[in-house]
Amino acid sequence: MFGSIRRIGLKHLIWFAPLIVNAIKAQTPAVRNIVLVHGAWADGSGWKGVYDLLVKDGYHVSIVQEPETSFHEDIEATKRVLAQQDGMCILVAHSYGGAVITEAGNDRSVAELVYIAAHMPDAGENESDDGKRFPSDLSKSAAIKKTADGFTYLDPEQFHQYFAADLSAEQAAFMARSQVPTFAENFKAVITTAAWRSRPSWMLVAGADRTINPDLERWYAKRAHSHMVEVPGASHAVYISHPKEVAALIEEAASMLDRKSRGSAPRDKR
What region, left, alpha or beta, does residue 68 occupy, with left being phi > 0 and alpha being psi -120 to 50 degrees? Predict the structure, then answer.
């Protein structure tokens, strides 16, 4: 009798096994690796809130600390982190980091690109010239300073109003005093191959951005046929002030990949 019970149990286990495996797969993101790239006058610590939310939801998150000493070196720093990923990843960037991932995102490990209040140049373009399409409040000001050796930084006294208006004065002051100077020529670096031409892309528009004009962010998204969301009233530091919205967009991008056939090749969006 016990042998019959064991045989019946084994039969049902074998029958249910594929269903159990499929259920587990359904709960596991097809792409679980997220790589975050910061922008100019900042470092990777600003991603802490987004990082915590993504890790809590089961993602493997890496943060690039690009040196901002040259565009080439920033791309290489990003590629080093991409090379450490176990499988495909979603590459995310803020601000100037958008230009970095537009070039570095051509790496085979990158499945999707997510731009957070970021530049999104095309091949043959640079973010400095693109910014002239829709000038920002910052570009019209005298807040961008330059060192004797060619590095830019934001006037600490004006950092709050132009970069992080929706953060506390205390937090903005710390960011201003700990900002990473960015080599001026980085903003004029010309893109050779725009990764968003061959990969799905997403754009989060910061509705009250004074560093990059929100109209430019919207224009970038429309040109690239990106999935676009907007956070009304958000400053350029939206990735710090609104981590839930930023993390939700990244996870939405991951979910879309889950729904697509992982065997299909990226399409050129020319």
Answer: left
Question: 124: buried, middle or exposed (CB in 10 Å: 19+, 13-18, 0-12)?
Answer: exposed
The three-class DSSP label of residue 144 is strand
Token reading at 97: 């980091």
| DSSP E strand boundaries for 140-226 | 144-146, 151-154, 182-183, 201-206
DSSP3 helix / strand / coil % (the chain, rounded to 5): 45, 15, 40
**Sequence-ordered list of residues with C-beta below 8 angstroms from that of 11, at least 6 positions apart, any chain:** none
Output the pTM of the full model: 0.87
What's the angle, vertex CA 168, arms to CA 202 and CA 240, rounded to 5? 20
**Separation between Cα atoms, residue 215 and residue 134, nearest integer Å:** 7
pLDDT at residue 24 tops 60: no
SS (H, E, C) 82-133: HHCCCCCEEEEEEECHHHHHHHHCCCCCEEEEEEEEECCCCCCCCHHHHHCC
Task: Choose among 175, 160, 181, 165: nearest CA to 238.
Answer: 165
In three-state secondary structure terms, 229 is strand
What is the model's pLDDT at position 215?
Answer: 98
What pLDDT is stored for residue 128 in this prediction?
98
The structural domains of the chain, ordered by start, are: 30-259 (3.40.50.1820)
What residue has token string 């797969």?
25
